[in-house]
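User: Structure please.
Assistant: Input sequence and predicted structure:
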Amino acid sequence: MPFQTGGLRRLCLCAFLSVTVIITGPTAGRAEDVPSIADSIDRTVTIHWMRYVSASSQLMERVCQFSVKFGSYSAGIDANVFGLVMHKATSDEAVSELFLFPWGREGERTLCINNLTDEDGQRLFYNVKRVIPEKGRHGPTTVHFGQESYGSR
């Protein structure tokens, strides 16, 4: 996947504004804005919560191999769907690191995962797709991997 130099520079600057949460299993603590998912995994998963990121959606699409966008209809994102997606992502053996990019005023964010094989990405895509409702209660949720895309209305 080709990267533009300017895009990489913006992404690297964002990395300095991150909070990293490492979840290692049932005894791990909770971080603000990250659901308690430690009970469901028995390995280390690193979650980078990027703060105050002003990255455009085009940049996000270029740097994220697998992404889930959580939108809002003026009432915040659907926390239940977010929790289910985070559970699917962190319990997948192929995922050891993920990034959360907030981009809105009501909790809107994009989950970004890289370094997946095609097989792992397809499996995760279909697992995440199953938990996204056809019609979002609080806003649209969209999952992208390669040429595949699925979203609620």
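Residues 5-151 form one domain.
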